[in-house]
Every structure is written in structure tokens, then in C-alpha cells.
């Protein structure tokens, strides 16, 4: 088998046109394939296959989420960029497998958030994030304000974010860690006699989804498993990345015929739960009285409206995930108290409660002396573990009376975790299904673009008149800084 090489291609002069998507899945192992995934006019039917073959349901991803953003064609919601790619290019080895059909070339596409690599990248990264209609969910009538609003918020937020990234070395470690995970996953699949190419697609920074997809086409991949690096599904993370992928597939003959299997969430997999329990068990041993430590799960928050109005399964999945980890710990004789809180809220709306900062203060006041923080929405170290938890929350906890502080590291390339992801890929492969995609005709597309340009022009003027009023600015500043 050939060694893997990681390629980064930088194409000078390429343009960045930024633009910019419920299901509590009770089954133990979940494979979801979109049978009409990229179809803009037909209701999407999802086939959900569970490890128990009799437990097969159709249409579980439904409600306002399915009939909302996933189906919508939103020209302002796409990122076209060919500035960078980080992939593990084909070695031809996919056709050598005994377990695969002679000409099968399997790809695995890892989806992740992406992060600014330098301080200079922070504002444009934030623009990409806030321009995502799954991050700032404007009512339909106000969609035209998305990009001007993103510009304004990103400029206002950038100084605070820059400070955060400066304190963790001047940029996000996400790209490197995700590349390492891709490499480790390829190795684990090789070891299981399932040679694949692994690709990385970031949502808000390089390498963007478009670049990964171009590489997949160049490698003539014949089956693709899409694996988001978020254990739990949220509209704002996995949903958003899948929507971008669907938009790309819809417009490409090759991709619309490519059999694809999407693993929407995997928080309930035994391997993941065991790996998390291993980390917690190990870290508890660093306290002088491990049995007295409060296990403090800190999850990334989302606005309450996502869960209560848009059908985001994130909170249900998070609570089930914590329950499963605690059950696993109990089976090992570890019976510590635990709690779950939500961190990293941004902006003036209500986010999922309780809030991490408020709970830390309450626990200190109640006399909790030892606390082990467990980041649980993400499997890499990033700004919210390295800066928010390790610096801000630690300081707050110590000021509030907590004396012994610990933090479980993110899973990263933990071998048992990566092996489990490899199993998830193998299990998902048989349910790969083509996304059939009638694209817009070119006349329709032209009309759409003209309408979009007009709306953006007038939208920008209106937004700046409204938003640059001193009152609005100070309201934003109070919430963003
Ligand atoms: C404003 C809305 C946001 C929502 C909703 C949101 C959901 C969400 N995010 C993650 C994971 C990560 N987010 C990260 C950075 C980040 N996220 C937001 C905003 C929202 N996130 C902002 C503004 C930023 C930038 C940093 C900052 O200014 O605070 C990252 C870090 C990436 C890195 O570079 O290290 C991660 C990871 C999840 C899991 C989630 C919903 C479940
Ligand atoms: Fe975030």
C-alpha cells in the first residue's frame, strides 16, 4: 500500500465568493442516506438504517428542518473558493481491496468547522460564519440582509476573537488536527482492509468544501461516506455543512450520481462513549480525591429557537450522550456527580441553558471544591477549549471557590476513537445512495442571480443606514464584545 501524502494546493488569484441547514435517532448505530438528497423540488426522503435491520424508518429527518433550509436553493449561501485544499490524494489503492468491487474507489469526506490560521484570517473567517443562514437565521423576508449583517458583525466581533486566537498561539489548530485525524482514519481503515481516500471539507475556512469535492472528482471516487466531526447533529454544524454539500452536488452531473452515505451523528456509538469514559476515568485519577470530583460537561450552545422552533435535535442528542457516558462510567464503578451546561453564546438571543459561566459560579457557592471540565461537542482542541475553558472558565471557577480544576483533553487522534470512526465508515458504506439532482435551467439561474444582486445592493444600503445608527452599534457591542 502506498504511503499517504497530504497535499495543500494554493491557487493564486482565485476568488472567494462567499455566500453561503430533526431527528433524535434512537438506534445504536445510525446510517442515513439521502435518497433524493440534492433535489430542490421534491421532498427529501431519508432512509434511516439502524444496526437492527428490522428497525428501518423512512422520513425521520422531518419537520421544519427538513422542509426549511435543507431544501432551499440559496445563492447567497454558498462558498466558492479554490484557495486551498487539504486532502489525502488517491493512491489507486481503493481498487485493490478484496472486500470491494474491482473498480470501487471509496472516499471518506470529513466535515469540520474550520478556523482562522492567522490573526489576519479572523475577520474574513467570522464573515463566512455569520453569512451562514444556519448560523444567523433571518426570517425569509430579511434574508437579503444576511451578508451586510455578516460584514458588520464580523468587523465588530473581530477584535475580541483576535484576542482569543492570539492567546492560543495566533490561530486555530483545527486544520492541523483535522488533517491528523484524516491521516489516522485512513491508516485505521487500511488496517481493516478498507483502503480509502480521506478528504477534509471545512465550512468556514480552508480547505473549503468546494476544493475537497474537486479533489474527489479528480480522484474518480465511486462511493463516498460523509463523516462530520461533530458527535451530535445540529442545524448549525452538520446541517449547515451538509446543505453546502447538497448545493454543490445538485449542480454537478458526476456528484449527483455518486452514491453517498451521510453519517449524521455518532454520539451514541459504543466506541465513542467508551473513549470518552476512558479520558474521564484517567483524568479523575489526577485529583487527590477522585470520588469527590464533579464531572462538568460543557457543550457548545445553540440559540434556544433552533431547538424549540426549528426542530434541531442537538439538545436531546447532547443529553442522551451525557447519559450514555455516565452509564459507562457507572458500569466501571465510577459514580461521581455530574452536570451539563452550555458555553460560547454569542449575540442578544436566548441560548440553551444553563450557561457554563453561571453554573460554575453556583457550584462554587454551593461548596463544590473539585471539578473536571469535559468538552463534549467537538473532538479537537480549539479556541473554546484552549481559551474559553482553560483560561476564562478556569479563572472564574477558581474565583468562585472551586479549588481543584481539571480538564479532559479532546479526543483528537485517540486510537480507540479513530478505530470506532473507521467502523462507522465501514458500516455506513452499504447504504450509499445516489443523489439525483435536476439543476436549475440557465434562464432560471440568470433570473435568480439578477434578483440576488438587486436585493443585496438595496439590502446593504438599508442595513448600513439602520445598523450604523449609534443606538444599534452600542446594542451590538454590548452583546458581541
Ligand atoms: C453565532 C452563532 C454560533 C452558533 C449557533 C455556533 C454553533 C456551534 N459552534 C460549534 C463549534 C465551534 N464554534 C467555533 C467558533 C465560533 N463559533 C461562533 C458562533 C456560533 N457557533 C463564533 C463567533 C466562533 C468564532 C470564535 C469566537 O469568536 O468566539 C469553534 C472554534 C473554531 C476554532 O477556530 O478553534 C468551534 C469548534 C458547535 C459544536 C456549535 C453547535 C452545536
Ligand atoms: Fe461556534
CATH topology annotation of the largest domain: Rossmann fold
Main beta sheet, described? 5 strands, mixed
Q: Can you tell me the overall shape? A: globular
H/E series = EEEEHEEHHHEHEHHEHEHHEHEHEHEHH
Residue share in β-strands: 5-15%
Region (Disordered): 1-26
Enzyme class: lyase
Function: Catalyzes the ferrous insertion into protoporphyrin IX.
GO biological process, one term: heme biosynthetic process
Structure, explained:
Strand 12 (370-375), helix 12 and strand 13 form a beta-alpha-beta unit. The chain is an alpha/beta fold. It has 15 helices and 14 strands. It folds into 2 domains: 7-136 and 168-268 and 415-434, Rossmann fold; 273-407, Rossmann fold. Helix 3 crosses helix 14 (442-467), helix 8 (270-284) packs across helix 10 and helix 8 runs antiparallel to helix 13 (415-428). The radius of gyration is 22 Å and the shape is globular. It has helices spanning 63-67, 122-130, 146-167, 174-191, 209-218, 235-250, 253-257, 270-284, 304-308, 314-331, 356-365, 383-399, 415-428, 442-467, 470-480, and strands at residues 7-8, 30-34, 46-50, 57-58, 86-87, 106-112, 197-202, 223-228, 259-262, 294-300, 338-343, 370-375, 404-407, 433-434. The structure holds ligand L6N33NVT and fe (ii) ion. Ligand L6N33NVT is lined by residues 113, 115, 126, 129, 135, 157, 161, 172, 174, 230, 234, 236-237, 300, 302, 314, 346-347, 377-378, 382-384. Belongs to the ferrochelatase family. It comes from Actinidia chinensis var. chinensis (Chinese soft-hair kiwi). This is Ferrochelatase. Keywords: Chloroplast, Heme biosynthesis, Iron, Lyase, Membrane, Plastid, Porphyrin biosynthesis, Transmembrane, Transmembrane helix.
Amino acid at each position: 500500500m502506498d504511503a499517504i501524502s497530504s497535499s495543500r494546493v494554493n491557487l493564486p488569484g482565485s476568488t472567494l465568493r462567499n455566500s453561503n441547514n430533526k431527528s433524535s435517532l434512537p438506534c445504536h448505530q445510525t446510517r442515513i442516506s439521502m435518497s433524493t438528497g440534492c433535489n430542490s423540488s421534491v421532498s427529501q426522503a431519508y432512509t434511516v438504517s439502524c444496526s437492527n435491520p428490522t428497525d428501518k424508518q423512512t422520513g425521520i429527518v422531518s419537520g421544519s428542518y427538513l422542509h426549511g433550509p435543507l431544501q432551499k436553493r440559496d445563492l447567497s449561501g454558498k462558498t466558492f473558493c479554490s484557495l486551498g485544499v487539504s486532502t489525502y490524494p488517491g493512491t489507486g489503492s481503493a481498487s485493490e481491496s478484496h472486500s470491494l468491487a474491482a473498480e470501487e474507489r471509496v472516499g471518506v469526506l470529513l466535515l469540520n468547522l474550520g478556523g482562522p490560521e492567522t490573526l489576519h484570517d479572523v475577520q474574513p473567517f467570522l464573515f463566512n460564519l455569520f453569512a451562514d443562514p444556519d448560523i444567523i437565521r433571518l426570517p425569509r423576508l430579511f434574508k437579503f440582509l444576511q451578508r451586510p449583517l455578516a460584514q458588520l458583525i464580523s468587523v465588530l466581533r473581530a477584535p475580541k476573537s483576535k484576542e482569543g486566537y492570539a492567546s492560543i498561539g495566533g490561530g486555530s489548530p483545527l486544520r492541523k488536527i483535522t488533517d491528523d485525524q484524516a491521516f489516522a482514519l485512513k491508516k485505521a481503515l487500511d488496517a481493516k482492509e478498507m483502503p480509502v481516500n480521506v478528504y477534509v471539507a471545512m465550512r468556514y475556512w480552508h480547505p473549503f468544501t468546494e476544493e475537497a469535492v474537486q479533489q474527489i472528482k479528480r480522484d474518480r471516487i465511486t462511493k463516498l461516506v460523509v463523516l462530520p466531526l461533530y458527535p451530535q447533529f445540529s442545524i448549525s454544524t452538520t446541517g449547515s455543512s451538509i446543505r453546502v454539500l447538497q448545493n454543490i452536488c445538485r449542480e454537478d452531473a458526476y456528484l449527483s450520481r455518486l452514491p453517498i452515505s451521510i453519517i449524521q451523528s455518532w454520539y451514541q456509538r459504543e466506541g465513542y462513549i467508551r473513549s470518552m469514559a476512558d479520558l474521564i476515568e484517567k483524568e479523575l485519577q489526577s485529583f487527590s480525591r477522585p470520588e469527590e470530583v464533579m464531572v462538568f460537561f460543557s457543550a457548545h450552545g445553540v440559540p434556544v429557537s433552533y431547538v424549540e422552533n426549528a426542530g434541531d435535535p442537538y439538545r436531546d442528542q447532547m443529553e442522551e450522550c451525557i447519559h450514555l457516558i455516565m452509564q459507562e462510567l457507572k458500569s466501571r464503578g465510577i459514580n461521581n456527580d455530574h452536570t451539563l451546561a452550555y458555553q460560547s453564546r454569542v449575540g442578544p438571543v436566548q441560548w440553551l441553558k444553563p450557561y457554563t459561566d453561571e453554573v460554575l459560579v453556583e457550584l462554587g457557592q454551593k461548596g463544590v471544591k473539585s471539578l473536571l471540565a469535559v468538552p463534549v461537542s467537538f473532538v479537537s482542541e480549539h479556541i473554546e477549549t484552549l481559551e474559553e475553558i482553560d483560561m476564562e472558565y478556569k479563572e472564574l471557577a477558581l474565583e468562585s471557590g472551586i479549588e481543584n480544576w481539571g480538564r479532559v483533553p479532546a479526543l483528537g487522534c485517540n486510537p480507540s476513537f479513530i478505530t470506532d470512526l473507521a467502523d462507522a465508515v465501514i458500516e455506513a458504506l452499504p447504504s450509499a445512495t445516489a443523489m439525483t439532482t435536476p439543476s436549475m435551467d440557465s434562464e432560471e439561474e440568470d433570473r435568480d442571480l439578477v434578483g440576488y444582486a438587486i436585493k443585496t445592493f438595496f439590502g446593504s444600503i438599508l442595513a448600513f443606514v439602520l445598523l450604523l445608527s449609534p443606538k444599534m452599534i452600542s446594542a451590538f457591542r454590548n452583546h458581541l464584545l
